[in-house]
């Protein structure tokens, strides 16, 4: 009996200590003085629009962890749109240019949002080192996640409604927006971190993806992109590619073979997963990593509505793209594969399958929405509707 009681008390003590260890704690929110970041806008906005502009606001400790924000003039908290730049995760920053918005003038875009009482932020994040990367794309994704969480934590200071935030981007920024917006809430409890920023919700009201990729599990592009491209006369096959690395089955998916055949692109793919060789794509560790950044499987009917726009000018590769010794051909090939209409169509098809509200603008495939032609209209509708 004594032995039983002793075991009982030891067990009770152990359980109580576990409860104590998991106990939520109060974390301190550091004060922020927004006035120290108020600056002159680099964009010449419409004089009739009232706003404040804050530049290079730090949301983390790295020099890349900064955002710029245009604050709509309002007494009540405003919706917010967050822009995430592209550049393949190896280049780019938060500065706004027509190239970032498919040729549209960023001045017009920011003005359109502000005139509707919607604030606008643009973020920078850590880029990948194409030669010596060890963390991979999760590093960049986590930075964007932190920026979103930081803006929610300081929503009152920026006069933002944390429940009416939309995120969008182009290329790498588009994939980031999809990853964050389609993931279940990525906040962690105070029992797991002493960083109050990371305890904030990552839920958003709307997602926009311009010239996007369907998933960051690149070998899946064979079925999503290259299989339908073969029906349009794609002449490449992985066995004929120079410098292609063989996979576990004696051949490599065309998507990976094509990318590994171009050294500069292969280096980018390696940095994407933090590996040293394309042949490491099939290791257990990298396979788990690829699964972690697989976007399509994140999507379900309960996710926020999405806007998709891939407007690649042709379905079939131009003959000049096959010259892998020509830098211009390599650039064209990179854009062709990474931003192809079939990338957006895979997301469109998945949204149709799960019943998620979406607007798809993929003109080369005859997929367009007659009611919502542009992402500004989409976001204004979704964020104003959420009032």
From TrEMBL:
Residues covered by the BD-FAE-like domain: 68-207
Keywords annotated in UniProt: Hydrolase
SUPFAM superfamilies linked: alpha/beta-Hydrolases (SSF53474)
InterPro entries referenced in this protein's UniProt entry, alphabetically: AB_hydrolase_fold, BD-FAE-like_dom, GDXG_lipolytic_enzyme
UniProt keyword annotation of Translocase present: no
Gene3D superfamilies for the chain: alpha/beta hydrolase
Xref: Pfam families: BD-FAE
Name used for this protein in its record: BD-FAE-like domain-containing protein
Matches recorded under PROSITE patterns: PROKAR_LIPOPROTEIN
